[in-house]
Amino acid sequence: xxxxxxxxxxxxxxxxxxxxxxxxxxxxxxxxxxxxxxxxxxxxxxxxxxxxxxxxxxxxxxxxxxxxxxxxxxxxxxxxxxxxxxxxxxxxxxx
Length: 95
Known about the structure:
This protein is α+β, with helices and mostly antiparallel strands. It is built from two helices and five strands, in the order ββββαβα. The chain has helices spanning 51-66, 75-83, and strands spanning 3-8, 13-18, 21-31, 34-42, 70-72. Strands 1-2-3-4-5 form a five-stranded mixed sheet. The termini are far apart. The relative contact order is 0.19.
């Protein structure tokens, strides 16, 4: 299984493709110079396969590369960051 995480700015979300099929997304809203990560959804066909974690990891890695900061409003993203503290530096207080 191959994963590809891409930003779709028109839809304001990062999408994960699994073997070229859309498998999920993390939605965001730009607010005062940060991205508020609002919601993550993984298609039920891909749940329990690590797709959600791959999506969040890919999203956060790309945001780090761009120098962006985030507010993890999405509970899935917040829990991921709690378990993977190497991403804690991306988090800022809600604007």
